[in-house]
Amino acid sequence: DMRELLDHMFGTGLSPELTSALKVLAQEIPKLHRDIQDGLLKVLYMVLLHQQMKHPGAPKTSTSSLPSTPTPGPLPEADIGGITLALQTLGSFNFGAHPPLQLVQNCAEHYLTSEHRSVRMEAVRCCAALLVPNLLPPTIFSTPFVQFSAASAQVVGDVLGKLLTQGITDPDDEIRETVFMSLDERFDAHLAQADSLTTLFVAMHDGVFRIRELAMCIIGRLSNLNPAFVMPTLRKVLIQILTGLEYSGVGRNKEQSAKLLGHLIANAPKLVRPYQEPILKVLIPKLKEPDPNPSVVINIMAAIGELAQVAREDMRYCVDELCPIVMEMLQDSSSLAKREVALWTFGHLVENTGYVIEPYHKYPNLLDILFSFLKTEQTAGIRREVIRVLGLLGALDPYKNKQHHRSRRRSKMGTPVSKPMDKRSRQLQNTGSGESASELLVSMGSGTSLEDFYPSIAINALMRILKDQSLSQHHTMAIQALGFIFKSLGIKSVPYLPQVMPPFLSVIRSCDKNMREYLFKQLGQIISIIKQHARNYMPDVFIVIKEFWSPTSTIPIQNTIILLIEKIVVAM
Question: SS3 for 208?
Answer without folding.
Answer: coil
